[in-house]
Design goal:
The protein has 24 helices and 24 strands. The protein is α+β, with helices and mostly antiparallel strands. 41% of the residues are buried.
Length: 809
């Protein structure tokens, strides 16, 4: 221990003698460790660490698989058959994702996230209420009492944390509910849920084609997921044999809950972690170059120590300690940078990443950071020590102090520069491809104009009686009419789902469109997105009318139900005839069997994502289909003459005057359009930061190596200039030596980029992974930057005074 402490004290003194080296080394390593730690904290929280539930590895999600390979929620009859027949699950339950509904009865009306849950949901998840109880069997039966369980945060916000919460009566979507329990703080499944409500608000479905039951299960102890999948497939086969065409699923799917929650981000996170690791390798290469320069100066010191009897292990320990005195502070600074990096990740990806509350720089992440520091210290300490133990001591003692011209060291330094250039090119190629994809997506015409337009989102409780339907119809009519007469308003309209607002469906995920009947003929089936809109919606969104007319005052509740269709639908189903006057029946969406008479054709709209082609769309008239109009997220779109934000107070007051219990939220269409790009923006920003950091490290590495080479060759340069070499000759010599590793690195980097960027194919749009323009631009740009980094030391070399250089010895 005494010798260990002496080595530590010696290492500290050695670093204090070289403060510039120590500071630069800490900063370089901190950048690499910080980048890797940032992404690791996300990967660890979402992919590596078990979910915060008891025996979370046994939690699974059950899905049905359609004929097109798409996965769907279960139907009611299929769920009951699985519960009866399966032996693989200890418990099965229903748990829908959270969605916003109007809630009254608390401190104020709110639009809160509600999740339907069956009685055994809390048993499946393994978490019991902090206060109160779970649902009772009678609360699962249709027509029985409706009960709710509140999240801890909602209990504090809406009920003020009152102890007699079970005396509270909340109204959720028009249904009176009794509060029976409070969940513990931090419980967040499904994500962001504020209220869990019983599943008895609607009658049980008897259709095997109505996929509306999200099911979660817990595997029995000892049952593997492969065994459960095999059993489910057998059950599905027997059900298809029994029910035939009544059942539209072809198989059942079983996914671990963690895999299901991270299915849309898993590949991207591993890709980002790999990019962060490349940046860490660059930092290590840069630090190794610094160590080589220092080792050349200190080689005589270590040779003398070896000659005096220092063992290989003693030299290695000294080097490891000195490295650790650099890498451990770098790990601490890297962890600090990672804490800021995690905030950036959460700001960019909060609406894409699941259970973001678990993402933090905690003990596991700090241990990872320190582990990287120790690994780097050991690896870069052992290698020089091994080489020292193999050298000829007499030859080493004869070398002049600091004058070693070891060709091996020069080749190693050049190789490290080439590695840095290659890794930088790979990162910049990835960032360039993502950037070009982003620009191409930005250039897509969504089919509507976003400028000077704002969307007001609101929702009312579901209607049950015809009287409530009529009240709702009057409310919407008055709201649209009064909003249209506000100063500065050009057009007002409403739709049940705003285009690009629902980012749950990824651009690459299977899209299953609901079906409709042409002329009410079961033999003529079509597929389209179903929307319900008001007459002013198309003017408010600047969606062009191509043929026929829009809804008008002649379309009443007593007249024929009408529809406007998109150009792509007309082209697909009536390519050689006039679509005006055609009839379709879309009753499977809202149970309204009225035929829809096509009265107009409008331009296509990118409804789901910008990347996906515009889908065939049917727009029904809101005043004729009020039930479907109000159960989804109603958006009132207002086009203004000037700034749309100036209309927010007047719009909010208009809603309050009509109904004081309706909460509202506002977002401009520019914000909606921008939010639809969040996924691409997230990857681009992270990749871009990594690439720029890599470039700075590469430039620093090239500059440092060239500066060191110029210093080492000052005597040689002086002789050349004394013998008549011109400044231009010296400049060419130094630049040629510096650019050799750069060109090698670019060549290797291009080969690596061609291979590795193929992993990014699913993240690109309109650009091939081997896009020649991107690779060429990145390569030329990197060469030019490297050339500048070489020229600065080279110009300094041309100013060497031969007389001074010849006295260098």
């Amino acid at each position: 221990m005494d010798s260990l402490f002496r080595d530590i004290r010696y290492g500290v003194r050695s670093l204090f003698k070289r403060p510039g080296f120590a500071a630069i080394a800490v900063i370089i390593l901190a950048l690499g460790i910080g980048a890797t730690t940032t992404i690791f904290s996300v990967v660890d929280a979402l992919l590596l660490r078990a979910l915060p539930y008891p025996e979370a590895g046994r939690l699974v999600i059950l899905r049905e698989v359609g004929a097109q390979g798409n996965q769907m929620a279960l139907t009611g009859p299929d769920f009951e058959d699985i519960k009866t027949s399966s032996q693989s699950f200890s418990t099965l339950a229903i748990s829908s994702v959270g969605f916003p509904l109007v809630v009254t009865g608390g401190n104020e009306a709110s639009r809160s996230r509600i999740a339907f849950a069956s009685r055994r949901f809390f048993e499946v998840i393994g978490v019991q209420p902090l206060l109160g109880r779970v649902f009772l069997p009678e609360e699962e039966k249709y027509g029985g009492p409706v009960a709710v369980i509140l999240s801890y945060g909602y209990w504090q916000k809406a009920l003020g944390g009152r102890a007699d919460f079970n005396a509270a009566r909340l109204n959720v979507d028009g249904v009176n509910c009794v509060v029976v329990g409070i969940m513990p703080p931090g419980f967040d499944y499904p994500a962001d849920t504020e209220i869990w409500i019983t599943t008895n608000t609607d009658p049980p479905s008897t259709s095997r084609a109505t996929h509306n039951l999200p099911v979660i299960g817990r595997l029995r102890a000892g049952v593997t997921i492969e065994q459960a999948r095999a059993e489910l497939s057998g059950i599905g086969k027997r059900l298809r044999e029994r029910y035939g065409e009544q059942m539209d699923a072809v198989d059942f799917a079983l996914l671990p809950l963690q895999d299901f929650l991270t299915r849309n981000v898993r590949q991207g996170l591993w890709l980002l972690l790999g990019s962060g690791s490349l940046l860490l390798l660059m930092a290590c290469a840069n630090y190794t170059n610094l160590l080589l320069a220092q080792f050349t100066v200190r080689q005589r010191e270590f040779t003398v120590r070896s000659a005096l009897g220092a063992s290989r292990w003693r030299l290695a320990r000294q080097l490891i300690i000195e490295n650790a005195l650099v890498t451990l502070p770098a790990a601490g600074l890297g962890a600090l940078l990672a804490s800021f990096g995690v905030r950036l990740v959460l700001a960019l990806g909060a609406d894409m990443l699941p259970h973001v509350n678990a993402i933090a720089v905690d003990g596991r992440v700090l241990a990872f950071s320190c582990g990287l520091a120790v690994l780097i210290a050991v690896a870069l300490g052992l290698l020089p020590a091994l080489r020292l133990s193999q050298q000829d001591l007499q030859a080493g003692l004869k070398e002049g102090r600091g004058q070693s011209a070891d060709a091996t060291k020069r080749r190693l330094r050049s190789a490290l520069v080439a590695v840095q250039i290659a890794l930088t090119l790979i990162l910049f190629a990835g960032a360039g491809l993502l950037g070009r994809s982003f620009l191409k997506v930005m250039q897509i015409d969504p089919g509507f104009k976003t400028e000077s337009t704002i969307a007001m989102t609101l929702s009312l409780p579901s209607t049950i009686t015809p009287e409530q339907d009529e009240q709702l119809r009057q409310f919407y009519s008055h709201l649209l009419e009064r909003s249209a007469h506000l100063p500065g308003v050009i057009a007002v309209g409403g739709i049940n789902v705003l285009p690009l607002a629902d980012r749950g469906a990824g651009g690459n995920s299977p899209l299953v469109l609901p079906s409709f009947l042409i002329n009410d003929d079961p033999a003529q089936k079509g597929y389209a997105i179903y929307r319900v809109a008001s007459s002013g919606y198309f003017a408010a969104m600047s969606i062009p009318l191509l043929r026929g007319r829009i809804f008008d005052e002649t379309d009443t509740t007593k007249s024929s139900h009408v529809a406007v269709i998109s150009q792509s639908l007309a082209r697909k189903y009536w390519p050689n005839e006039d679509p005006i006057g055609q009839r379709i029946q879309f009753g499977n969406m809202d149970q309204d069997k009225h035929l829809l008479h096509v009265v107009g054709v409008v331009g296509d709209v990118r409804d789901v994502t910008l990347e996906r082609e515009a889908q065939p769309t049917v727009y029904a008239f809101s005043l004729q289909r009020p039930q479907w109009w109000q159960v989804s997220r109603l958006a009132i779109v207002v086009r203004a003459q000037d700034s749309p934000q100036s209309l927010i107070p007047a719009l909010r007051e208009t809603v309050h005057d009509l109904r004081a219990d309706v909460p509202t939220s506002f977002k401009t269409l520019d914000q909606v359009f921008s939010s639809s790009l969040n996924g691409r923006r997230f990857s681009l920003v992270i990749f871009g930061i990594f690439a720029i950091t890599a470039l700075l490290l590469a430039v620093a590495g090239i500059y440092g190596v060239m500066s060191y080479v110029v210093t080492q060759r000052t005597h040689e340069i002086g002789i050349r200039m004394a013998l008549g070499a011109r400044a231009a000759d010296v400049l060419k010599l130094v630049v040629r030596n510096g650019m050799g590793p750069v060109l090698l690195g670019v060549t290797v980097g291009l080969a690596g980029a061609v291979g590795l960027t193929r992993l990014m194919a699913s993240f690109l749009f309109g650009v091939m992974p081997t896009d020649a323009l991107t690779l060429a631009t990145v390569s030329v740009g990197l060469i030019l930057v490297a050339l500048v980094a070489c020229c600065i030391p080279a110009r300094r070399a041309t100013k060497v005074d031969p007389l001074i250089a010849l006295r260098y010895e």
